[in-house]
Amino acid sequence: MKIRIKDNSLRLRLTQSEVSTFEDEGSVSAAINFPNGHSLIYSLNKNQGETFVAEFNGTQILVSVPENAYSTWLKPTEVGMEDQLALGDGSTLRVLIEKDFACLTERVDEDESDNFPNPNVNC
Question: DSSP per residue over the chain, as a string?
Answer without folding.
Answer: -EEEEETTEEEEEE-HHHHHHHHHHSEEEEEEE-TTS-EEEEEEEEESSSS-EEEE-SSEEEEEEEHHHHHHHTSTT--EEEEEEE-TTS-EEEEEEEE-BPPSS--TT---TTSBPPTT---
